[in-house]
Amino acid sequence: xxxxxxxxxxxxxxxxxxxxxxxxxxxxxxxxxxxxxxxxxxxxxxxxxxxxxxxxxxxxxxxxxxxxxxxxxxxxxxxxxxxxxxxxxxxxxxxxxxxxxxxxxxxxxxxxxxxxxxxxxxxxxxxxxxxxxxxxxxxxxxxxxxxxxxxxxxxxxxxxxxxxxxxxxxxxxxxxxxxxxxxxxxxxxxxxxxxxxxxxxxxxxxxxxxxxxxxxxxxxxxxxxxxxxxxxxxxxxxxxxxxxxxxxxxxxxxxxxxxxxxxxxxxxxxxxxxxxxxxxxxxxxxxxxxxxxxxxxxxxxxxxxxxxxxxxxxxxxxxxxxxxxxxxxxxxxxxxxxxxxxxxxxxxxxxxxxxxxxxxxxxx
Length: 364
Ligand SMILES: C[S@@+](CC[C@H](N)C(=O)[O-])C[C@H]1O[C@@H](n2cnc3c(N)ncnc32)[C@H](O)[C@@H]1O
Known about the structure:
Keywords: Membrane, Transmembrane, Transmembrane helix. This protein is of the alpha+beta class.
């Protein structure tokens, strides 16, 4: 049996003594040549890595192609964004600063305001703005067209709305069809786009323009009115029977979500509230609707904490932290708040605010 030895007692043979490398001018010269070559190789490798890092995570506005996605023309949709390679769940596919921000409600003429903001853009940024589509008012020109482009492409950024030329190329998909979500990072003043589902190479990268937890006809009517297109996404194209079942699930998810507000008005106990959250989760799983999972689990954290249930609070916070990180990014305030509750469940602001009662833990 081999004896355990420490280094000092090692019986391994002594390593060979290093050969003095820099003793002659020739040796010194070849050392510097090798040093130079290694430095260049490391430098080039580093630059390539840095370029790919920028491409994946911190793009400057105006790019239409990165290592991860490209903007292409798609039949019947204008432009859209397509994955250039498999994208794993939780990947940040894009960070983007706005061309400009506008308050969500303004007193002055919106046309005039947008025109003035566009006139202040650099020529390159103005080109990016002019390249955007404007389906809400296709025949418009001049200031009206600038307003139409803003209406078609604006994305909420805190209490403002902004124009983000890359994110603006994301087309819409309903319930199980959309695979990315964006989140305004107020600290960095940039939009973060996260893949909350795995996306295969060649697949279209889709966001959602509306709450799609409603029946297909209603969704289509809304999208036609607000964005001027008839939705034929994978959910809207389901055969009649499957479409009916999908509609039923979505309507039930929506009904249960509004029923949950009864806990807020103290008309529902903590056990029932967490039971409803588990039901919504299950329906979402059946539907393939993975969005909003972080906030659903966060609602359960609130219920469990208010009823003073430490173990359930921590378990729901673990789920919330996981899904906030996937959908909003690990540096999002939401993911950080959930991480704090995992460490100290009793630090939740609602801790013990209601009578103590057992609540359900995650049932998945
Ligand atoms: C924010 S833009 C998206 C990018 C746009 N396709 C482009 O070419 O720049 C919104 C417009 O894209 C089109 N669009 C988005 N999702 C679509 C879909 N699922 N099917 C057809 N057209 C869609 C509609 O014309 C909509 O008004």
